[in-house]
Design goal:
With about 140 residues, this protein is an all-alpha fold. It has one domain. The protein is built from two helices and two strands, in the order H-H-E-E. It has a two-stranded antiparallel ribbon with strand order 1-2. The radius of gyration is 37 Å and the shape is rod-shaped. The termini are far apart. The structure holds zinc ion (ZN). Zinc ion binds near residues 70, 114 and 129.
């Protein structure tokens, strides 16, 4: 007993207190382990969120790329159609056939990168793509 420091640590001689203290230590270790697990779970969740964000960014970029390619096709079809109307003295309600445009006003039939189908439409209207969201921007 003489080797014990004076003060609150003297209660270690009391078996009940010693037991309680041991239980506290185990509890602390458990809490620490739980804390580590929580941290790992949080890290995993953060990783998943980052992967999801990166994935959606890549998807958006790919979608934008295919959209702009389709947009430029539509622009090309529109320009070809307008030129065709000018050259042939056509009105706004006339609709050129692909054969009227291909070879003369466009090199080859434009292909939508998403597999949409193009409609030339009458001269007054813009050409359209059947793929959802693909339309001629201003
Ligand atoms: Zn398209």
């Amino acid at each position: 007993m003489s080797h014990e420091k004076p003060g609150r640590h003297n209660y270690r001689t009391d078996p009940l207190t010693a037991l309680t203290e041991a239980a506290d230590r185990i509890g602390f270790q458990l809490a620490e382990t739980t804390g580590t697990l929580t941290l790992m779970l949080r890290a995993c969740a953060a990783g998943l969120v980052l992967v999801a964000i990166a994935g959606s960014l890549l998807l958006t970029r790919e979608r934008n790329r295919s959209y702009s390619s389709c947009d430029s096709n539509l622009r090309q079809i529109d320009a070809a159609k307008q030129q065709w109307a000018l050259d042939r003295g056509k009105g706004t309600n006339d609709i050129p056939a692909w054969n009227d445009l291909i070879g003369t006003y466009v090199k080859e039939p434009p292909k939508c990168p998403q597999g949409g189908t193009y409609r030339i439409n009458r001269v007054y209207d813009r050409p359209t793509c059947s793929y959802p969201g693909h339309e001629l921007s201003k």
